[in-house]
Design goal:
By secondary structure, the protein is an all-alpha fold. It has one domain. 79% of the residues lie in helices and 0% in strands. The longest helix has 25 residues. The radius of gyration is 15 Å and the shape is flat. The N and C termini lie far apart (51 Å).
């Protein structure tokens, strides 16, 4: 990999890991879904950098698109309200 592609690869990898950690650790479910979608978009860009356009397109349509929309629709249909848990 040339220098510019390596830097872009490392930036996308770092962003993907940080968005994935945010998707796991955030308490708001809508923000978790958005973080998951952004991590999936970063992964699709990494696949594209690795010369795998079919895997990239599949990740964009299924990962970032379909799953995120299903999560958001499920949140909307279930009320989407988060209850405070007394600890």
């Amino acid at each position: 990999m040339p220098g510019s592609e390596l830097i872009l690869f490392l930036l996308l990898g770092g962003a993907m890991i940080s968005f994935a950690i945010c998707a796991v650790l955030l308490n708001n479910l809508v923000r978790c879904t958005v973080a998951y979608a952004l991590a999936s978009i970063c992964l699709a860009a990494i696949f594209f950098l690795l010369d795998s356009p079919y895997a990239s397109a599949f990740e964009l349509t299924v990962g970032a698109g379909l799953i995120s929309v299903l999560f958001l629709v499920a949140l909307i249909l279930s009320g989407g309200e988060e209850l405070e848990v007394a600890t």
